[in-house]
Each structure stands twice: as structure tokens, then as C-alpha cells.
Amino acid sequence: LDADATQIDISCQKGGLESITVTDDGTGIHPRDLPLACTRFATSKLVNVEDLKSIRTFGFRGEALASASMVARVAITSRVRPRPRRNTNTANNNATT
User: Fold this and answer.
1) How confident is the model over 30-54, as pLDDT tens digits?
2) Among 15, 18, 22, 82, which is most buried by a count of CB atoms within 10 Å?
3) CA distance 76 to 88
4) What percent of the chain has pLDDT above 90?
């Protein structure tokens, strides 16, 4: 879920056993960050050591997605506004493609 989202939609098929789809209207994940989205301990918030002083949020997206990708096939489709093109990354047992 994107921190800037104002609407979140969740859809389950067969009680979540077949699929769980989460959609939000947030700002999106940049294409260069998608391959890291399901990697443990990864963050796009830090580029250099000085960035540690300016962290404003403490989200857990990386850990939640890494955990989910260990037990399920995870596909993330994201579009960074205002770009029209969507990008997709998939992970299964923490191996990304």
C-alpha cells in the first residue's frame, strides 16, 4: 500500500486461497525500485548515509512483501504518476523477475 493512497481496494478469490488483489491510488513505485520491492531489508528511502537523517516514515512494505513472496507468487504492477506506462515485477520464493 502506498503511503499517499487515499483509496484502497481489496479483492479476494476463493477466500484469498486463489488470489488477493490490493489496489491503491498512491504515487506508485519507481520502475528502478520494483526489483527490490520483495527483497528483505531493501528500501528506496536511502541513497546515501546522510539520508538516515531525513527519514519521515517507517513503512514496512519491504518486509511484508518479502514475507509474502516466500509463500506465494507475488506480482506488483505499479505506475508512477503522471506516467501512462505501468511496470510489473513478480516474485516467487523471493526470486524476482
Assistant:
1) 888 888 888 887 766 677 888 878 7
2) 22
3) 5
4) 12
Question: Which residue in this structure is represented by grid cell 526470486?
Answer: 95
Instruction: Give 67: exposed, middle or buried? Use CB within 10 Å, 0-12, 13-18, 19+.
Output: middle
Neighbours of 61 (CB within 10 A): 17
Residue 59: the pLDDT is 58
CB under 8 Å to 71, separation ≥6 — which residues?
none
Q: Which three cell numbers stand for residue 84?
A: 501512462
Q: Enumerate the β-bridge partners of residue 9.
A: 23
Question: What percent of the chain shows pLDDT beyond 70?
Answer: 75
For 76, other C-beta atoms within 10 Å of its C-beta total 19
- Reported pTM: 0.66
